[in-house]
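Box 3.1 A note on notation
Throughout this textbook, protein chains are presented in two layers. The first layer is the amino acid sequence; the second is a token string describing backbone geometry. Keep the layers aligned when reading.
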Amino acid sequence: MYPDTETEISYTYLQKLIKVLEEPICMIGGWAVFFHAQDEFKKAQNRPYLGSRDIDLGFHFDPKWTIKEMKNSAFVRTMDILEKDLKFEAINFRLMKEIHSETGKEIPKDKHIPQHFIFPMYVDLIIDHIPKDFKEVIRLNPIDEPLLRYVFEDKKYRSTKETLHKKLLLPSVSLMIAMKLKSLPNRDKNHKRVKDICDLFALMWYSSEKISKIKEDLKIFVKRKDIEKALACLEKNSLESASISLGHSIEEIERVIMQLVIK
């Protein structure tokens, strides 16, 4: 779906991050889906599940934290590592580094190369709650995902994955599906919508979670009308692209995902 060079670069930086960040490291977004689906997908298709271009990390902020507590948070320590050690640049709500799409090497600030060779490697730091004094402490305009709080508040809504001798926290399958359903109607880029469809299918077909359990848990996270709104975005051209990427027919993808609204 994405060029292999881009997802390979992203995975390389994900590994670098895992090695230097403190545990527990909360993964969300496309790489979290990868860790949920990879084993069964690879067993079935003899190839890795789809990678992600961006790296999304989740963080908890307590509404009652003081400015001092925010300054000592895992979020701030992670930002320091990204900027000082890995030389990412803070831009609006993300951290970014320019990588040469063919060589996989970082592009020096003083070097000018054609735009089509530049792969912008993004790391998004996403929080569950924005405290009122957040901007006094942190320069980024934060992305917030309120559903993230379930990961940090209740262990039944998360799972763990051991990789590179570090423990990753992953939102539960049903919680990941809820996040994908929320994002789907707001996607303004077709490739993002296709990736959401692929991820929804993979979470339902290749994870260990039963459909009945997913549907029961979803009632906690999203309303039925929001599920229906998201699934109304399953357009033919997006399903065709997802079918090619997943190696499953359009009919099968649609049938599996539509089970989310079948009583």
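Strands lie at 25-28, 55-59, 89-91, 94-100, 118-127, 143-144, 158-163, 166-171. The chain has two domains: 1-171, 173-263.
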